[in-house]
Amino acid sequence: VKAVLEQCRNARAAARAFASSAHAHTARKNALLAAIARDLRLQCAAILHANAGDLEAARASGTSAPMLARLALDEPLVTLLADSVASVIALPDPVGQTITHEVRPSGISVRRVRVPLGVIAMVYESRPNVTLDASILALKTGNALVLRGGSEARRTNEVLTGVVRQALVHEGYSEDTVQLLDNQDRSAIRELVRAHAYVDLAIPRGGEALIREVVENATVPVVQHYKGVCHLYVDAGADIALTERLVLNAKMQRPSACNALECLLVHAATPSQELSKVLTALQSAGCEIRACDRVRARVPGLTLTPASPDDFGREFLAPILAVKLVGDLDEAIAHIAVYGSRHTEAIVSPDSANVLRFQAEVDAACVVANASTRFHDGGELGLGAEIGIATSRLHWRGPMGLESLTTMKWQVTGNGETRA
Amino acid sequence: VKAVLEQCRNARAAARAFASSAHAHTARKNALLAAIARDLRLQCAAILHANAGDLEAARASGTSAPMLARLALDEPLVTLLADSVASVIALPDPVGQTITHEVRPSGISVRRVRVPLGVIAMVYESRPNVTLDASILALKTGNALVLRGGSEARRTNEVLTGVVRQALVHEGYSEDTVQLLDNQDRSAIRELVRAHAYVDLAIPRGGEALIREVVENATVPVVQHYKGVCHLYVDAGADIALTERLVLNAKMQRPSACNALECLLVHAATPSQELSKVLTALQSAGCEIRACDRVRARVPGLTLTPASPDDFGREFLAPILAVKLVGDLDEAIAHIAVYGSRHTEAIVSPDSANVLRFQAEVDAACVVANASTRFHDGGELGLGAEIGIATSRLHWRGPMGLESLTTMKWQVTGNGETRA
Asked: What is the ipTM of this complex?
């Protein structure tokens, strides 16, 4: 078993080699990505064999059906993963881009350029496609990667990183540019996120316990992918057909997604028959409604579950929706400030002043007006590919695409200027 | 004594109020800054009285002369601080700026806009002007601020934050928008940087011990202001007059600055009489040279201190320079990778290919070619004002001006679009 620190040190050396002129060209990095896609297709059988082993062990230990579904790969999915590499190859390379450029009165030329972050540690659970998505985006942006996946996907992750490492060697890079953590103890996570001499960023993706463990212990910077407790506030005068369409899409299109709706806030002026129409549509679509007393009093004809205090601020990840009546926009903003998770918050309103206030004052990675919360996604927002949605405030917020895996460097060029 | 968490909670509430439409306008924030400048001038006597108290206590406890100098304020300096507020008022407000804007094929309008970071914790030592600089930049960008200055400047910092808080109240803001930590125990720092429910960013500025304490204990994101072990590499064929000018400016203009030169790396092909000329000029200017054996062998006529291994990678902050002969550009880059602090690194070279390689491959916040390392400064690089130079990689690198105190938010606006 290789020590965690040894693997991190090797990653740092690999990241430095990656920065050398011979290795950092976009064309060479794209050739590397193409080699990974090719090898994925070639090694599909080996990948599925390893995945079958993981699934068998998971089944034997009584893993739940949703967990098994997240773990499972099949040939169409591996082909899809390989195909999706082409779209990342097609994306512009942010590394080397000039952010600002100015010639100063002193005569020096000042350029701020995008550079790779360095060494990224990814700590995640279940879905083995994360192993590949993270590798592809990290390599496109010139970073080294240390992966710590869940033990339930160990065999699959070993074969997947094996494919990536083989392509790295084949294309003339160090295989240590992408590494799976060898030490499988729980304590290895703590060691990894405290290795600030070698690791530049830790990205935890998974349940609350995992994220809390990383945040509490890390000495390296962390960009969190925290839960999404997403609200939709229905303002006075909102068009009811539009509201119904947005609520159904936000809640029911994919209830297990982090940008799915969890709580509906309804302005008290909303006519009872309109409120009844929206809630009935949700129930018809298979959604359980957990409503506050005032909502239930408004629509006595409907059978609604009384909301418990715990139902507000809760991420159901299921076809369940909390519903609450609020007096006005201020009360909606205040409720979201207390119960939201700063992920995705939305308003439906015909009043542009209220829309502007909501978008300005609600604190979240993404604030949506008159559209579905489900648009908070890298592809939908125009980033092309993402490795998750950051709920941190620093460095990056929202879908993490290529640019989020870079930092900047100041380049000053002169002709012998000195400071006065 | 107010509890640390209570102060942080109050800061969070103040930050939220600051985000409301009534308070966030640039004109209102600028009026607040103008009020602070006015009150600074009006209360100059009280500020100097408090500072005299700090100086007396510091002298009584045997504080060193350089420390006393850093602590001392006088009327011209207070006037200068008040005057400098005008330049920040004149700077454009980054909050509300659109970073990207796109209408997507789905029909939604996607805007990424700059927003305040939220609550910033500043942990620093000595210089009381930091109290004011941080307040001015944080308020201009709509942030709340919790300050933890050194105990040696306690009286001065109390009066300075008092001036800021009085102006806040006068202009209709919560006085808790800027707070000095009440609890003066050392343990309060740890509490502050673990208050991630309320604090969005910690900025430590001071000695290595302080920065290490913050990094080791923080659960909130940290942007470090670490030491500057700055190198200048003199490439083969470098113009010797230009080299001499840059070395003298970088080392001797202000040896105590973090962007001052600490180590000169000289290409082995540099003629001995040229090397001798540069080192003699440094000695004439009062600089002690600590040279490697190969340098000393090259210029036997000069009296040079033999460099000890500790002299490389060391921040002298004094008129002392380590000098080392290197075989080529690769050796220079490799030396900097081991001994540099990722702050400021420089090359003097007539060879543009070497300049490009150096600027691409050397990992530092600022990489300078054919100019003095002393240009790595907010004013010189065009930011107008700064609260230090970040040596972190994430979120920000280099001089921290207004933009570095903001983050972003995605604003999606539609007409009833749902996700397919």
From this structure: 0.94
